[in-house]
Amino acid sequence: MCKICNKKHNTLLHHEKGTENGNSNIEADRSKETSITNNLSVNCGVIDSKQVMLSTAIVKIKDKHGHFQNCRALLDCGSEGSFITKELCDKLGLIKEGISVNVMGINQNVSTIKHRVALEIESMQFPYKSTISCFVLT
Questions:
Q1: How many other CB atoms are found less than 10 A from the CB of residue 82?
Q2: What share of the chain is helix, strand, coil (3-state, %, to 5)?
Q3: Residue ranges per structural domain of the chain
Q4: pLDDT of residue 12
Q5: Which of the listed residues 18, 34, 51, 90 has the most CB atoms within 10 Å of its CB?
Q6: Measured between alpha carbons, how far is 22 from 10 in angstroms, rounded to an integer?
Q7: What are 31-49's pLDDT values in tens digits?
């Protein structure tokens, strides 16, 4: 839900009419349509004149009570691991396993991951279920 106009698209996709060139508005409108019809959205950012796009999707994640909760997932096909924030992990009441793994990220910054959890996820639209291991971001 857009925080600016309260319509069904991500706030990062909100564009005022006339503020961008015609092609950008067309691309943004297509992304908004995709967000509404497929529960997917595309987040765009510009860094040094290079456009980076990462998709998001609403997925169901099983909490400690066995109930599925709707959560937004960031889909990064370039990532070599799956991650969950500590806040979401705590909210879902997931059991954390202690580990010590170094993860290299942007600009070769190294972070030490201290926990991982097993998540049971389910698609919102298709008969797909999977259990995945996620590193917990603090």
A1: 15
A2: 20, 45, 35
A3: 11-38, 56-137
A4: 65
A5: 34
A6: 20
A7: 433 333 334 444 445 555 5
Q: Which two tokens stand for residue 118?
A: 């097993």
Q: Which residue has the tokens 């015609």?
A: 22
**Alpha-carbon distances of 100 from 65, 103, 117, 134, rounded to whole Å:** 28, 10, 13, 13
Contact predicate 58/75, CB 8 Å = no
Taking only the tens place, the pLDDT of each residue in 67-113 is 999 999 999 888 889 999 999 999 999 999 999 999 988 888 899 99
DSSP at 11 = G
pLDDT at residue number 128: 92
DSSP 67: -
Q: Which fold has domain 56-137?
A: Cathepsin D, subunit A; domain 1 (2.40.70)
Q: How many CB atoms lie within 10 A of CB 50?
A: 7
